[in-house]
Amino acid sequence: MIAPRRFLQAFIFLSVAVLAIAQDDIQEEPPAGEDPVDTGVDVDDVGEDSYKSVKGTAKKAWQNFKPSLAHWSNKRCVENSDAVGILARLSASGFIATHIVRKLMQDGYAVRGTVRSVSSSNAKHLQTLSAESGGEGTLELVEADLLSTEDWTNITASASYVVHCASPFQVSGKDDDFSAALVGTRRVVQAAIDTPSVKRVIVTSSIAAVSSGRDDVHLCTFTPDDWSDADKSDPYPKSKTLAEKEARQLVANQPAGRGLELVTINPGFVVGPSLSERQDFVSFDTIKRLLNGSVPAAPSLSLSIVHVDDVAEAHVRALSRGKPGGRYICWSGNLWLYEVCQCMRNNESITSYRVRLPYFRAPNFLVWTIGLCDKTARAIVSRLGVESFYDTSSTTSELGIAFKSADDAVVDAALDMLQRGLV
Ligand SMILES: *[C@@H]1O[C@H](CO)[C@@H](O)[C@H](O)[C@H]1NC(C)=O
Ligand SMILES: *[C@@H]1O[C@H](CO)[C@@H](O)[C@H](O)[C@H]1NC(C)=O
Ligand SMILES: *[C@@H]1O[C@H](CO)[C@@H](O)[C@H](O)[C@H]1NC(C)=O
């Protein structure tokens, strides 16, 4: 589906934005008395070669582009901020947790899940999940909050497994923000240690705990033996790295003879259909922005994608398979943002909806130029053009996961949100 207006807008954006930025007034409001700059571009206007309209287009594109950069800076990662996941039996209302809970129920587990508020809309979908899952499993929801519930042992009581898949992360970027993730992990893992019936605890970590802050990104394929350099990482990967280390430390220091096993699942950028109305997870927002026309041109950012189904399946299998202390990376492959757009554009079910995918890549020098005067853009400059590769062979051989393709993850996510009218 050709969208000439988008096409022109992106083209003009690419050719003019740098010039306009150089003029240094593109961020400013028009001076009083001057007509507000025309923000729409009519195809007819463009032929007139009006400087003002071209500049207006660049300005509009810039206004769209800047927030889209903010979106990709790591500070925005708030996945699972409210969902406290857990256990099994345990669990929660987050994006990944909901998929895990559904699979556990299909497999016949009695799941006890924690949510911050049973009556909140964020927990509603869980109530209907049991009916829909078609399995023998049951779901009991209890209220708990990682940050305020200190004693979790009455929640983990009598459970055989604990799955901790919530990681609260606050956005403001202050130093102690990641203490939330640490405190939550400490409380849940300690409760698992203190509950004799619990045989194994599964902690959802991330590839952010594997490959962040490393200088050798270009040189290697990261394996489960690799660790991020927390001191050189942004707040989000830093919080994931410290939280995973904390969990391992606690289990290593458990009382002699206790024998609790820890397994971590380290997924990449988790993409796929949501089982709830919640839209507050990062991949949802990314795909939505690409579809809804708020990204005029895609910066050269690589996403290390994995399908949410595979991530949930890895958690469930890790209850009974996988080595104690194992670290299982979940990753299907990388897609550049423009490839993400490409695979959505190639699926006719997606293009039968009104979608406004960007046609162009934003050249690195442009993002770099913007970065000179904008902190948000600067935050992603170091990630431009950088890809990381991961060795998932142990996940395949020990947990038996055959990863779906990254393209499928993207298409499934996009179709899901389009079908539900969320774009
Ligand atoms: C755990 O204990 C707290 C405080 O004693 C109580 O408020 C909460 O309801 C209990 N939770 C469960 C699942 O029994
Ligand atoms: C596109 O989606 C993003 C993320 O939800 C939203 O902030 C933005 O306003 C949307 N833009 C348009 C043009 O609908
Ligand atoms: C689009 O994707 C869906 C879901 O993966 C798939 O079932 C369908 O066949 C695809 N359609 C086309 C035309 O590729």
UniProtKB/TrEMBL annotation:
Q: Indicate whether Transcription regulation appears among the record's keywords.
A: no
Q: Name one process (GO BP) from the record.
A: flavonoid biosynthetic process
Is this entry keyworded Secreted? Answer: no
Q: Which UniProt keywords apply?
A: Flavonoid biosynthesis, Oxidoreductase, Signal
Q: Where is the NAD-dependent epimerase/dehydratase domain?
A: 92-328
Q: Which SUPFAM superfamilies match?
A: NAD(P)-binding Rossmann-fold domains
**Record Gene3D superfamilies:** NAD(P)-binding Rossmann-like Domain
User: What EC number(s) would the UniProt record show?
Assistant: 1.1.1.219, 1.1.1.234
Q: Name one GO molecular function term.
A: dihydroflavanol 4-reductase activity
- Classification via InterPro entries: Epimerase_deHydtase, NAD(P)-bd_dom_sf, NAD(P)_dehydrat-like
One Pfam family from the record: Epimerase
Question: What does the record give as the reaction this protein catalyses?
Answer: a (2R,3S,4S)-leucoanthocyanidin + NADP(+) = a (2R,3R)-dihydroflavonol + NADPH + H(+); (2S)-flavan-4-ol + NADP(+) = (2S)-flavanone + NADPH + H(+)
The organism's superkingdom is given as Eukaryota
Secretion signal, residue range per the UniProt entry: 1-22
Protein's name according to its UniProt entry: Flavanone 4-reductase
Please tell me the species this chain comes from.
Pycnococcus provasolii
